[in-house]
Amino acid sequence: MLLSSFNFSFESLIPVMVLIGIASIIPIVLLGFRRPLVPIFIGELLVGIILGLHPEVREFFWTPITQSLYTISLAMLLFLSGFDTDFTVFSKKPGEFPILKWALRGLGIVYLLSFVMAFCFKKYIEDGMFWQGVVLMMLLLASTFESYINPIIHSRTEIGLRITRLSGTYATLAEFLSIIGLSVYMMIFQKNHRLWVVGIILAVLLLVFLILKRINRSMFDGIRGGYLQIGLRLSLFVFLLLVILSEYAGIEIIFGAFMFGMVIKYAQVSHREIAKIESFGAGFFIPLFFLLLGLQVPLVQVFSSWQGVYLTGIILLVILVVKLPLLYLAKWYSLSTTVIAYLLSTSTLIVSLALQHFDVFTHPFSEALVVASAITCIVPVILFYHNHSFGKKRELNQISTNTN
Questions:
Q1: Residue 226 CB: number of other CB atoms within 10 A?
Q2: What is the largest CA-CA distance in the chain?
Q3: Are 162 and 403 in contact (CB under 8 A)?
């Protein structure tokens, strides 16, 4: 047979096949309940964590192929996250609530608190890397997993609702700054960075934007659908190009994907075209991402010692403390809505996984960071999922149109 002439082991696809099968079963099981106990994303993450409890099972699934799929899936998730950016907050109309101003104000205070609280963990920073550790902890404490939180919020509340826009804008800014911060850190402290490639990435993004704004879109009528799917092909080409360039530049690979999503959104590309990529990602890449993400949570290693439990608890406490300024939402919303929005802002996981590759913190502390971050991604979302009053215009006061 022709296939037998290729030097390729189809056995290497077995873990991928099993993961796709698991990803197909999870929504069927959850939707079998009258009301699903948890969102499907949470179900996939939890199943991944359970699979990772046994070292041999984790080794079976964590292969070079699945690691590559995990990287591409993460980039796809960040691309869609960038596309979720609400650029309307930059053009405030007279009398409209200043979404951007309040989000920036809250984020600025959170970053200040994060910088101060980062000093609490100085004993867990490796020798000679004190300031690197402080900066990285600041980025982690202030970050929010927007790629994970925004789709869940949008699925259960009206997109134009003020609390939805405010939470989404804050999360987008927090994730954007964490990506930029990690990329800048890598360019400063890593030896394999290539600054000129970053310039190429920015040039590609600018070129894509100019083409999308000036192109005669009627050119694609008749060929954008059907077998050709020219829009999908070009989008995936640019997406992969930016991911590869980001890797070659020595910065976070998600930088190019996230910025590409923002450019696509700002250029006002038809959501019908993006829906094709969303369906492609949601049907294959994103379920695999959350399953593989769960595999990396070292639950057994951390909870097998009191030190791990202690570190996890302290990290969770500090994450909750630095986000306390976001409780200012109580000025306009009920206690239930305020607390849920506050807890959702604590969700972070991508940065804690990235920190493991920098060798700045002690190994037990790095593992505790991942477990604590996983908890922030699970508990708040479950509470939000079972809260029926979130965002249903439960404002306590009407804000003045001349709010400062």
A1: 8
A2: 75
A3: no
**Which stretches of 25-84 are assigned E, i.e. beta strand?**
none
Q: Is the pLDDT of residue 401 over 60?
A: no
CB-based contacts of 12-20 (< 8 A; 24+ apart in sequence): 12/63, 12/64, 12/65, 13/65, 15/60, 15/61, 15/63, 15/65, 15/66, 16/65, 16/66, 16/69, 16/288, 18/61, 19/61, 19/66, 19/288, 19/291, 19/292, 20/284, 20/287, 20/288
In Å, how far from its chain's centre is CA 371? 16
Region of residue 337 (phi > 0: left; psi between -120 and 50: alpha; otherwise: beta) = alpha
Q: From residue 358, give the alpha-carbon distance in Å to each of 8, 87, 126.
A: 33, 33, 11
210-227 per-position pLDDT tens digit: 888 776 454 444 444 544
Helix axes 64-83, 286-295, angle to 10 degrees: 120
Task: Give the position of tokens 């096949």.
Answer: 17
Cβ atoms of 133 and 125 closer than 8 Å: yes
pTM: 0.85
Q: Is 257 left (phi over 0), alpha (psi -120 to 50) or beta?
A: alpha
Supply the DSSP symbol for 3: G
Cα–Cα dist 402/404, whole Å: 6
First to last CA, the chain: 73
Q: What is the dihedral of CA 380, 384, 387, 391, to 10 degrees?
A: 130
CB 97 within 8 A of CB 162: yes
The predicted-structure confidence for 255-277, as pLDDT tens digits, reads as follows 999 999 888 888 877 666 677 77
Q: Report the candidate in 287, 292, 284 with the shortest Cα–Cα distance to residue 61.
A: 292
| Residue in the structure block whose two tokens are 């077998």 | 227
What is the Cα–Cα distance from 262 to 110, expressed in whole angstroms?
24
Q: What angle do CA 314, 315, 319 make, to 5 degrees?
A: 120
